[in-house]
Every structure is written in C-alpha cells, then in structure tokens.
Amino acid sequence: MSVTIKDVARAAQVSVATVSRTLNGHGNVAEEVRRRVLAVARDLRYTPHAAARSLSSRRTQTLGVVLPDLHGEFFSELVRGVDQIAREHRLHLLVSSYHGCPEEQVAALRAMRGRVDGLLVMSPYAQAQSTVAEELDSALPVVLINSQCAVPGPMSLSIDNYGGAQAMVDYLIDCGHRRIAFIAGPEANYDAHERLRGYREALARRLPKAAEWVLPGEFDEASGHRAGLALLAAPQRPDAVFAANDMMALGCLFAFAQAGLKVPDDVAVAGFDDIPLARYVHPTLTTMRVNIAELGARAARLLLSKLTAEQASQEAAPDTDEPRQSELLQPELIVRESGMRRGGDG
Prior knowledge:
By secondary structure, this protein is α/β, with parallel strands linked by helices. Helix 8 (161-174) packs parallel to helix 9 (190-206) and helix 10 crosses helix 11 (246-258). The model is unreliable at 315-323 (pLDDT under 50). The relative contact order is 0.12. The protein starts with a helix and ends in a 12-residue tail after the last strand. Helix 9 (190-206) links the parallel strand 6 and strand 7. The chain is elongated and about 85 Å long. It is 43% helix and 15% strand. The protein has a six-stranded parallel beta sheet, sandwiched between helices. A six-stranded mixed beta sheet has the order 7-6-8-9-10-12, with helices on both faces. Keywords: DNA-binding, Repressor, Transcription, Transcription regulation. GO terms for molecular function: DNA-binding transcription factor activity; transcription cis-regulatory region binding.
C-alpha cells in the first residue's frame, strides 16, 4: 500500500496540517519540526498525491506547450529550453502539436484547460490567429512565441525575422554575390513571410536592378532538396542561395553535393536558425543564429513570472487592463564554410 500524508504525520508525531505546510515550503513551521517531517517523509518514501495537491493548491504544477509541429531540430531545441526551466522549478510539461491544422490547434488548446497552470503557444500561421484569440482562456497565464495573435494581455516573444533576413542578404552582397536565390517557407507562416520580406527589401535596397529569385519551400529538407534541383536545372546558376531555414539549406546542400558542385566555390549557401546540425555538416553552414533553446527558456521564464504576478494579484484588486508586453530577439550572423567570403563579379 502507498504511504499517505496521515502515515507521515503519525510517524513524525505532528498534525496532517503541519506535514502539508512543511512539504509545501511554508515558513510557519519550526525548524526542528520541519527537519523531522522531511526525514520521516524521506524514510517512508512518501510522494504527495498530485491530484490531491492540485485540489488543495489549485495548481497542477504543469506548464502547457502547444506547437505547430514536433518534428525537426528547431522544435526539439525549443522544448529542451522550456523543459530546462520547468525542471529547475520542479514543474512538468504537457506538450501538444497541431501539425499546422487550425482544427487540431483548437482541440489542443481546449485539451489544456484545467490541466496546466500556464500556457506557451506558438502559432505562426495567419489563418489561425482569430481562432487562437477565441480559444485562449483569459484566466490562464499565456506567453505567445512567434505568434501574431492580436489578443490583449498575453506576453509575446518573437524573433526579428525581417531584420535577420536583411542582415544575411547584406552579408552575401558584401561578399560579392549578385545573383541571390531565396528558398521561401510556407506561404501562410508568419516567420517565412517576414524572412521573404527581408530578402526582397534588402535586395531592392542594395541591388535595385537585380531580379528576385524565389523558390517555394516548406521548412523541411525535402523542399530544400527540390529547390536545389530546380536551381541546378536553371539556365544560369545563382552566386548564392539563402534558405529561409536551416533544414531547407541542408537539403539544398545535399542536392549540390550530388551534382558535384563545390560550396562555396561554385555557389554559396546560407540558412536561418542555427540548428545544432548546422555546425556538423560539410561544409559547415553559414546562418542567422537564433538561440532556439534560449528562446524556449526565455518564454518559460516569462510565463513563470506571469504566474507569480497572477498569484500576487489574487491578494489585491484585479487589473483588468493589463498591457500586452512583447520582446523582439535579434538573430546573429554566423559565418561558416558554406558562405565564406569570395571574390565577386561586381
């Protein structure tokens, strides 16, 4: 039979309330009593019942994470960063993916209700924004990650995709490249939209006579490989290829390697995100670094600070006009072998 809180109280010769206060970290317990209760709980291998603790504290000790996908290094790194902060605070994660489907996103958000203390939501798809706004529970602390959701209240944490894309195009032009192709991401994805906008505006600003060269992509290796094959079949090869994320850049690199092209001697290749694999491929990948794990960790810290503020506000008058807070993270240009500077023609 499992050990109960009453067993701990009996063995420690204190009340159940004293055991509860001790295990929940309350300060109104004498130090000698606290040590005795903790020692007895440890000796008896007592584990608090999660459901009972939730009922008494109105906390689940769980953070919800709703993401568009779980496949790929970006999402694994993001969850790793969130999990690091959660573990530091002895919290659990409830993770769900909606695979870019608005209906599944609604189901995921609804499934989180009553099961989590706070919610991290990444919703980069434009068609889902109104849905997210409708489904977010105003009583549940929320932090949005890379989401363009016009909801009053939630904190938001985003990457400067537009500025990062401009910085990469500027770098490639400074290296002497003039024919710069761009592998775009999904059309409805906000990150992809902003990176494409940055590419177009930087190209127009720096090379007003240069034509855009945009190929479709889906943020995965296969679409990057298809784009690479399309570029190989073009009448004239580009000087450089800028992919809207690293996974597509790696797929493009593979297509070029299959064709015997030398990167960066024949054509330079660059990506965006700086996933861990980017530094271990050959040639190593030039990219815009988004510290993905830190993005997840930062979002988790923001959520925990909001949880603390929510708890404190319960003892004061509620603030019904809480302003939305947002942070914009700046990506960093990381120059590696695939995009090293070479002599240009202009």
